[in-house]
UniProtKB/TrEMBL annotation:
GO MF, any single term: DNA-binding transcription factor activity
Keyword entries, A-Z: DNA-binding, Transcription, Transcription regulation
Species, as recorded: Iocasia fonsfrigidae
Residue ranges annotated for the HTH gntR-type domain, each copy included: 13-80
Pfam families in UniProt: FCD, GntR
Full protein name: FCD domain-containing protein
Entry-linked Gene3D superfamilies: GntR ligand-binding domain-like, Winged helix-like DNA-binding domain superfamily/Winged helix DNA-binding domain
CDD domains according to UniProt: WHTH_GntR
Amino acid sequence: MDNLNVDDNIKASNAKEFAYKVIKKNILNLNFLPGIQMGENDLSEALNISRTPIRDAISILSNEKLVEVYPQKGTYVSKIAMQRVKEAVFIRTTMESAAAKMACDSFTDKDFYILDSNLNQQELAIENNALSDYNKLDNQMHEYFFKGNRFQYTWQLIHNFSADYYRIRYIKLKLKLRLKETINEHKEIIQAIKTRDAVSACQQLEKHIKYVYDDVEVINKKYSNYFV
């Protein structure tokens, strides 16, 4: 498969886990576009593994609503469903607001140094048009609200529910929508946490996450075939 990208940094304990992580990352990063067909034989050849772990990985991805399997027809990348986006927004605003409140009470200068360093790297990534790096840094910033509070497993649950949300965000990056505005929102959230203003931190965070709905309106006009 020509669009398949295999990240050398992917760690896996077996072929099934490797196939799952590679295919999922290519779906989330839009190397595999919504609606396209994925052939087991092509994936097996591209990843240099047998079809059995490919089928096992596809089964997991089907349960996660990232692919759709039609007997006698094939496997297709799921299109983006707005209901799943709405549920991801609900989960993220609820959970991240709670994490921001905890951060207002518990974060130290060390935590703020880590967040400020992340923000500086975000700005540098945008300046260098390194959009994949920026996307990774964006995720790391949101993750740190949980990691810094030792709620890493909660973040993993959020991450697993956010696939369609992530795909919209990646399209937004490709279209370069609101990049500087997004970084400014990140700064406002972190500043509110620094000043221990939990109310402002939660308000800024909720507004920031819900901007995805504005992004969808723009994206849907250009890529309506990506949505179901």
